[in-house]
Amino acid sequence: MNVKAQTGLWIAQRASAAVLALCVAVHLATMVYAIRGGLSAAEILSRTRGSAGWLAFYSVFVLAVTLHAPIGLRSVLNEWLGWRGTLCDIFLCALAMLLAGLGMRAVLGVFL
Amino acid sequence: MGTDKLKVSVWRGGEGGAFQEFDVPRHPSQTVLDAVTYIQRALDPTLAYRFACRVGMCGSCAMTVNGVARWTCRTHVDEAISGKGEISIAPLRNLPVIRDLVTDMRQFFDKWARAKGRFEGKRTRSDEFETIVPENENRKQIDAAIECIGCAVCYSACDVVSWNPDYLGPAALNRAWTLIKDERDTRTVERLRAVAGDAGCHSCHTHMSCTEHCPKQISPTAGIAGLKREVSLALFRGVL
Amino acid sequence: MTGHTGYWAFLAHRVSGILLTLFLPAHFFALGSALEGEAAFDTFLAWTERPLVKFAEWGIVLLLAAHLGGGLRVLALEFLPWRNWQKGLAALAAAMAIAVSLAFALGL
């Protein structure tokens, strides 16, 4: 990976961090509100299903996570495990796909 | 009190060496360099170590004292001594050990060169001076970082240097920063390319060990943060 | 080099990041069970009532707050005018506040 791509990764990491700071704040506040008085599947799903706004919000959340976590883990693998190079980057792409796949499955399951 | 003794453990040998203990007479206002000098002159002439000015100007005497990288000529024994009244002296971390307290500093200076840490102006001796007034904002930022004397304390303190053999390190990156901020320099783009990426500024994780330990109170972390911003701007402008 | 604020902030930030990356796929997977309908989701929700799970949830909130605090510190150091030590403390203080308040709010 050349320095331009590595710079791009750094920018994506910081940008997704800023997005996540907002998303996490909203998510936690929402959870605190929603969890009061216990919850059942029916209660949750009745509020979330069909909500285009929340679907959009959580899709952005999942996308930000898909960028942020693997790029962060890349530093850990490079520095603490000494694992560098193409194979490591391919593994991280696979992780990104896993997070995107499971994440969007959850988003669609809850909001669609 | 000349009859008080200090227990000094000194690293002997190369990478696979060991600590050797010496009893050094303790004096008021004694520095760690004084202790090392005493050992070499009175106890064991085979001890290898570096020093030059012994007054905190050259940085040659930098060693690891009780686990911390510092200038031994500016470290009083009273300040460095452990709870048990012991001092351990080892060569600087992150550099190959030649022998005893002497390290091979070549990689430190090679990385300085790789970061394009050399000024290249556009004027010749026949031209007028290119003036940068003291109030100039760029110059103020340079001033905060320019006093580096290449002692390698920051390089020795940096964990990323330990973890990533290619990482240019705080001193080289700090010097590159002072040159990028220098309006008279002509090699800005090349230098930005040299300091970007995994081997460069982007691997700094702001531990700030460099800033914590720099004997000249420079903050390489600040300069490296500046490099991160400059490199991003260059990427957006399509010049990287 | 260990033993100073910046190093601990970094370590907390990195370790919490690693643990969160391990937690997230499980979190996504469990939520995805909602796709299989309300009964499956209810089974999952009943499981989360167990004390050990509640404790783990509190732990995850703590990890999140620690990671967010560390992240805000990095963003401040990289993008705001340089003020040496103040930023580290400010972001960490913010993280602590968030963690404590959330722990209480979530009633754990």
Topology, pairings included?
The complex is a heterotrimer of chains A (112), B (240) and C (108).
Chain A: H1 3-35, H2 41-48, H3 52-80, H4 86-111
Chain B: E1 5-12, E2 18-25, H1 32-43, E3 62-65, E4 68-71, H2 77-80, E5 86-90, E6 97-99, E7 102-103, H3 106-114, H4 137-143, H5 153-157, H6 159-163, H7 170-180, H8 188-195, H9 209-213, H10 220-236
Parallel strand pairs in B: 1-5
Antiparallel strand pairs in B: 1-2, 3-4, 3-5, 6-7
Chain C: H1 5-32, H2 38-47, H3 51-79, H4 85-105
Helix pairs in contact in C: 1-3, 3-4
Task: Outline the structure in words.
- The complex is a heterotrimer of chains A (112), B (240) and C (108).
- With 112 residues, chain A is mainly alpha-helical.
- Chain A has a single domain, classed as 3 helical TM bundles of succinate and fumarate reductases.
- Helices cover 86% and strands 0% of the residues of chain A.
- Chain B folds into two domains: 5-103, Ubiquitin-like (UB roll) (Roll); 106-236, Fumarate Reductase Iron-sulfur Protein, Chain B, domain 2, CATH 1.10.1060.
- In chain B, 35% of the residues lie in helices and 14% in strands.
- Chain B has ten helices and seven strands.
- Chain B has helices at 32-43, 77-80, 106-114, 137-143, 153-157, 159-163, 170-180, 188-195, 209-213, 220-236; strands at 5-12, 18-25, 62-65, 68-71, 86-90, 97-99, 102-103.
- In chain B, the strands form two sheets. Chain B has a five-stranded mixed β-sheet with strand order 2-1-5-3-4.
- In chain B, strand 3 (62-65) and strand 4 (68-71) form a beta hairpin.
- The mean pLDDT of chain B is 95.
- Chain C has 108 residues and is mainly alpha-helical.
- Chain C has one domain: 3 helical TM bundles of succinate and fumarate reductases (Up-down Bundle).
- Chain C is built from four helices and no strands.
- In chain C, helix 1 packs across helix 3 (51-79) and helix 3 (51-79) runs antiparallel to helix 4 (85-105).
- The N and C termini of chain C lie far apart (36 Å).
- Chains in contact: A-B, A-C, B-C.
- The A-B interface holds A 1-4, 6-11, 75, 78-80, 84 and B 160, 163-164, 193, 196-198, 200, 202-203, 205, 228, 231-232, 235, 240.
